[in-house]
Request: fold
Amino acid sequence: MEFSSKLLENAVNEIAQLPGIGRRTALRLALHLLKQPRENTTALTQALDDLREHINFCSSCHNLSDLPICEICSNRGRDHSLLCVVEDIRDVIAIENTGQFKGYYHVLGGIISPIDGVGPQDLNIDSLEAKVKKGEIKEIIFALSATMEADTTNFYIYKILSPYKLITSAIARGIPVGDELEYTDEVTLGRSILKRVPYENAIVDK
Reply:
């Protein structure tokens, strides 16, 4: 792809580094931004700068937050006894959009994947066990995507938490195997939360 402007080429190259964005799409986006009023592009760059400078990880659940403690964790009206374990913030957003879950979350920050060099030590598992040790949590819901790596992560955490008196459950498999949680429609995801099954049964079903 030949460019008449080095500035345009640089912009396209940077945009094309975003996930799912090829060079042709990056070019369309760059040209679109050029057509917008200057204040629009200024607002975009300011928003991105603010995101990088001021975003926090919630010290309780590891969700992204504007504050040290996210709005979900600071909501005393939610069910303290119920904790949903998810891979990342996208899954929190997906489950919250269903309106079916009223407990709290714990964001692992990934899943165990040896081929990608991700082990248990790279995830927020120690802080999860520390929460459980406090004794307030009565049920852990495994809400990871239906993939082999996610199942491995579920089982690893299940073994870590097995000494504690907990109900462990997994979201119902209305979600096709191999699908990512964030792409599941809200109705299916909501039902999978409500119709969760004991985790021991989920192991047997495999």
In short: The beta strands are 56-57, 64-65, 82-86, 104-107, 139-142, 167-170, 197-198.
